[in-house]
Design a protein that fits this description.
Elements lengths: L3 H4 L3 H9 L3 H20 L5 H18 L9 H22 L29 H19 L3 H12 L4 H8 L3 H19 L3 H5 L8
Helix pairs in contact: 2-3, 3-4, 4-5, 4-9, 7-9, 8-9
């Protein structure tokens, strides 16, 4: 439930609160803008599921960029600019997500090998292929180190292809909570392991997702 404290705040005030880690501020912004941003995205993205996913990626970027938001700017114009850029990135993200894949295991289950590890692109050299294998192995180890709920969001989103709304239903959690878990997981992977999923997979934010 959103408390009156948040409902009485301007968008810009909520962004300042969010920049200091206030989850309630994000929930209020999400409730205020989700449907209109979705409708904006939907006019450019014909697939309903893809439009939902792009919209949710936009709100992930809001979380990450909160500490860089200029309170002198109008939040509404700022988020629409994010939305416009995210729509442009949509097709690129769809291709980049194929760069690393965790598919069904092959061979002995204990070695953790994945089918994607054995497929060399005709456009990459043996050295590039070996580097990709090493990166995939590092990525798996980093993801395994995440707290359970953050790890579940990452796996369901990146490797199972679920939308954030579907993940929320699977985890029986509010959509805003799922988005926050994804944001914190991405930050932790980058900060502690140097694994930048946003760059490697085009996951909305820095390029992502």
């Amino acid at each position: 439930m959103i408390m009156p404290f948040y409902k009485n705040r301007s968008d810009e005030e909520l962004m300042s609160l969010l920049a200091h880690g206030d989850r309630g501020a994000f929930d209020e912004l999400f409730n205020r803008y989700y449907h209109q941003i979705y409708n904006y995205v939907r006019r450019s993205v014909n697939n309903v599921e893809a439009a939902e996913d792009v919209t949710q990626e936009i709100f992930l970027r809001v979380i990450k960029s909160a500490n860089r938001f200029d309170p002198e700017r109008k939040f509404q114009s700022w988020i629409y600019k994010i939305a416009s850029n995210e729509i442009k990135r949509h097709l690129k993200r769809a291709k980049l997500r194929q760069a690393i894949s965790l598919n069904d295991p092959v061979g002995d289950e204990e070695d953790g090998a994945e089918r994607g590890d054995f497929l060399m692109s005709p456009y990459e050299s043996p050295e590039e292929y070996a580097e990709r294998q090493a990166m995939a192995a590092e990525l798996r180890r980093a993801i395994e180190s995440l707290p359970e709920k953050q790890r579940q969001v990452v796996v369901l989103k990146i490797f199972e292809g679920l939308t954030f709304q579907e993940i929320a239903e699977v985890m029986n959690a509010p959509l805003s909570t799922v988005l926050s878990r994804m944001r914190y997981a991405l930050d932790k992977l980058k900060r502690h392991f140097g694994v930048d999923l946003e760059k490697e997979l085009g996951q909305s934010l820095d390029d992502k997702d």
